[in-house]
Amino acid sequence: MEVIGKSVIRKEALDKVTGRAKYTHDYHSIPMLSGQKVISPFGHAKIVNIDTTEASKVPGVRAILAGKQYPLTGEAIRDRPPIAFDKVRYHGETVALVVADSPVQAKKAANLIKVQYELLPVVNSPSQAFEKGAPLVHEHLGEYKKEFDSHPVPDTNIATHIKIRKGKMEKGWSESTSVVEASFSFSPSDHVAMETRCATAEILPDGNIIITTSSQAPFMVKRLIADYFDEDMGKIIVHTPLVGGAYGGKAAVQLEILAYLASKAVGGKPVEILNTREEDILTSPCHIGLDAKIKFGADSSGKIKAAEIRFLWDGGAYSDKAIDLTRAGAVDCTGPYHIENVWCDSYCMYTNHPYAAPFRGFSHSELSFAIERTLDLLAQKLKLDPLKLRYLNAIKPGNTTPTRVRLNKSNVGNLQKCIERVRELMKWDQGPIEEINERISKVKGVACSWKTSTIDPNAPSGVILTFNRDGSINLLSGVIEIGTGTKTVLAQILAERLQMDVDKIYVRMEVDTQTTPEHWKTVASRGTFMGGRALLEAADDVIRQLKDIAATVLRAPREDLEVANSRVFLRDDPKIGLPFKDICYGYQYPNGNSIGGQIIGKGNYILRHLTHLDPETGAGKPGPEWTVAAYGVEIEFDKRDFTYRLLKACTVVDIGRVLNEKAALGQVMGAMSMGLAFAGRETFYFDEQGRVMNPQLRTYRPLRYGENPEYLVEFVETPQIDGPYGARGVGEHGLMGMPAALGNALSTAAGVSLHNLPLIPELIWKAKEAQK
Amino acid sequence: MKSHTITLSINGENRSVMVRSADTLLYVLRGKLGLTGAKPGCLNGDCGACTVNVEGWPMKSCLMLAVEADGKKVITIEGLENTPIQKAFVENFAFQCGYCTPGFIMNCHSLILKHPDADDHRIKEWLESNICRCTGYAEIESALKSVLRKK
User: Mind listing the pLDDT tens digit for each residue in A238-269?
Assistant: First the structure.
C-alpha cells in the first residue's frame, strides 16, 4: 500500500489557507438583487393581515412576496408553504420576502412590512403534542400529499409512527429479574455551521434555472424544485462550490426555493438570499429534540432480555426530514446490543418549534443518550461494571438487529474490541472516581453506539474519470466537499487502484448537477463508501480501456499487461510498455493512423438488498453496514457549585480500514467536540410563546478553543468486505456517544441520575434539589 | 446616508474606495474590494471568521466601520504569502471546511508576531475569540505551537 493509510495533504488545502477558497457568498461577478426575509416573531399565530404599503415605497424594491399561496413543499409530507400562508407555525418562519437592488434597501423595506397576528395556543414539546386534545399544528394533515412510507395520523400531531416488533415481549419480561425504566428529554438545538446558508437563483430567458447553493444535496434541490413547481428537471442547474460546514443542516432544501420564487418574481434576475446568523438558527431547519421513555429488563447475569422504547421526536412545525430521522431512530433503537425482544414506537411529532434537519449522527447521538444512560442505571441495579455490562451484551456477528437483519463479520464492526480499548485508554479499571480533595473529583463515564445509514434504498453514486493529454486524470464525483476531505480520499483510492502518483490526479471540487454524475446527497457517512465504490468501478473501466489499446500496440494479450506509475507494460518485461500520455487520447502510429481514442472511465454504485420496513413490525433491511464505537469521558467536577471541566474524551471506532489517517482522526475529534458541545451546553431555550430566546452565538455557545478536552482516538479495523479497501463510514461516529458518556460521568460525579440535555450546572443543581 | 471616499492601505497597496458611514470594514473588503477571504459568520463579533489585522492587531472586521480604517494598515488573509502558520495549518490538518480558517490564521499570525513566546494561557486568551465547528481545536493548537516553538 503506497497511498492508502497515508496522511495525504488535502487537495483543497492551499485554497483554504490563502482565503482563495470560494463559498456561495463569495461570487460577486454579477450584480445580484437581495432577498430579505420577514420572519415570524411567534411560535403559533394566525396571520390576520400583511400590510406592504410603506415597504413597497422604499427605493430599489423590486418585489414583495407575501400572503400568497405557493405549492406546498416538504420531502416526506407536503406540509410546508415556502412562505407562510394563513398562519405561522414556528418562531422564525418566513412570512414575507422582499427583493430589492441591495441588501440595505431590502432590509429597510422588510422592516416596514406590518404583519398583524392573532396568537394561537402553542405546542411547546413533543410530549405535549402527544397529549389528547393538544392544539393541532396542522388541521388538514389528512389532505397533504405524501410519500407512501410516511404515516401521518389525521386530527393529531403525529406526522409518522414507526413500529418495531421483534420477539415476544412477555417472554422477555418473564426472563428478566431486574427492570429499569427511565425518561429523557432535550430540546432542539442548532448545527452552527460557520458558513450561514446561502442560495442564489437566476432564471435565464431560455428557461434555465441556475441555482448556486451551500447545500449537501444539490441533486435533491434539482429534483424537488422540478417536482414542486413542475419545472423541467434538465433546465435546473444547481451549482455547489465548497461548503462551509454542514453537519446535516444543509441537506434540507429551503433557501433554494425562496431564491427561485424571488427570481421568478423579478423576471428571472439573479437574487441572493443569505441567512443572517439569527435566521440560520431560527428560520432554517435545526437539530431535532427528543422525549424518550426506555424500559430494559435483564437476567441476573446481566443479559438484556427485553427493551421497550418510546421516542417522541420533536420534528417541529414541518415534517420534512424528521420523518426519516424518526425511522432511523427506530431501526437502531436498542443501541449496539443483542436483544431478542424489542418493542419500539418511534413517533415524529409536530410542535411549534423550528423544524428539524438531519444532524450528524441522524438520530443516533440522541437515542444513544437515552439508551446509554439507561444502561448505566441497569448496571447500577445489577451492581455490574457498566463497561462489563456493555461488553456482555455487545452486538456480534450472528445476532439480529431490531429490524431483524442478521449480522455477519463484514456488516458489523467489532464492538467488544472497541470496548476493551476504551477500558485501557481510559484506565477504567482504576475506578470511575478519583477524589482530588473535598471539593474536586475526577470522574469518568462510558458509552457505546452503532449506526447504519437509512438512506433511500435506490440512492445512486456515480464517478467519471477523464484524462489530460499528459496522462494525468480528472476525477468528477457528485460528492460535496463539506469539510470531510472525502474528495481527497477518493483521489487516494484512485491512486491506489491505478498504482499512480496521487499528485497526478485532479479533483473537481465544485459540483454542478448538469455535468457532474449524481451522488445522492453528501450525508450519512456515505461519501467514501458509495463514491468509493463508484470510483473503483470507473478505475477498472479505465484500466480495461488502457489495456485494450496497449494490447494492440504492444501486440500482447491483455492478460499479460499491468498498470502502474502511469504506464501500461508487460508483466514479465516491464521495460516494454506505453505511458498513459501516449494512449489516453488514442495511440498514433508513425504514419498517422490512430486507434483507441479518448479514454473516459465511468462507474456507478447503488446499494444492494435494502428494503422498505414492514409498517407493522419494522422488519426489513434499512442499511448496508453498522459502524460501532465505544467512548469515554473524564471530567474534573466541583461538588460545591456543580461546574466541571472536560479533561479527556476517548473514542474507539471500528473504521474498517483507515484510508487517510489524519483526515480520519480529524473527523472523529471534530465530531467528538460537536457532541460534547451538544451534550454540555447547546440547546434552544423556548419561552411560553415557543420563541427561541438564544438565537445568537453569544447566547448559544459552541465549544471554543481551550474548552476542548484532550482527545484519545483509536481505530479498530474490521474490514467491511464490500467497502472500498474495507473502509466503513466514520464521519458521524465520534459524536454519537459523547452526550451519553458525559451524562454518565456527571451522574456518577454528582450522585444523581441526569435525564436532560444540555448538562449544565443548573440542571445538576435542580436534580440534586429534587433528590432532597 | 452620507458617503465618504476613504483610502485604505490593504496588503501593502493603497486602495481608494467609496463607502457609506454605516458600512463595516468586512462589507467593504468583500463587496467593494473583492477580498472575500474574510468571512461573515455572525456580523456580531461572536465568531471571528472575519478577523483581519489592523495596525498589527487582530480585528474582527464586522465590528469596525470602514471609515474607522481610513489611513490604517490592514492586512487580510490574501496579504499573507507562504507564512509559517499557513504551512502549519496545511501540515497539521488544522482545517476541514475551511470557512473559519482565514480568521483563525489571521489571529494566529498576529499572535505569533506580537507574542512569539506565548504560553497556553495567552494562546487561549487570543484564540477563544474564534469558533471552529469542524475540528476539535487539537489540530489548530498543534499548528500554532509548531510555529511558536520554532521562534
Answer: 999 999 999 999 999 999 999 999 999 999 99
What ipTM describes this predicted complex? Answer: 0.98
A388, amino acid identity: K
Task: Return residues 57-116 of B near A (CB < 8 Å).
Answer: 76-78, 80, 86, 89-93, 95-102, 105
Beta strands in A483-584 (DSSP E): 505-507, 511-512, 561-564, 567-570, 577-579
Point out the domain boundary residue: B78, B95, B116: B78
Domains and CATH numbers, chain A: 286-455+610-771 (3.30.365.10), 459-606 (3.30.365.10)
The alpha-carbon gap from A508 to the nearest alpha carbon of chain B, in Å, equals 16
Closest of A80, A47, A79 to residue A66, by C-alpha = A47
Q: Cβ contact (<8 Å) for A697 and B137? A: no
Mean per-residue pLDDT over chain A, rounded: 96
For residues B96 and B113, membership in a common domain is answered with yes
What's the pLDDT tens digit per position in A511-547? 999 999 999 999 888 889 999 999 999 999 999 999 9
B128 within 8 A of B120, measured Cβ to Cβ:
no
Any alpha helices (H) in B14-100, and if so which ranges?
A: 25-31, 84-91
Query: How many residues make up chain B in this entry?
Result: 151
User: What CATH number is associated with residue B58?
Assistant: 3.10.20.30
The cell for A414 is 467489532
Query: Cα-atom radius of gyration of chain B, to the nearest Å?
Result: 15
The per-residue pLDDT for range A572-628, each reduced to its tens digit, is 999 999 999 999 999 999 999 999 999 999 999 999 999 999 999 999 999 999 999
Chain A nearest-CA residue for B135: A670
Same domain, B29 and B74: yes
| Distance separating alpha carbons of residues A267 and A270, to the nearest angstrom | 9
Report CA dihedral (A588, A594, A596, A599) to the nearest 10 degrees. Answer: 60
Amino acid at A530: M
| Rounded Cα–Cα distance for residues B107 and B103 (Å) | 6
Residue closest to B127 by CA, chosen among B93, B149, B100: B100
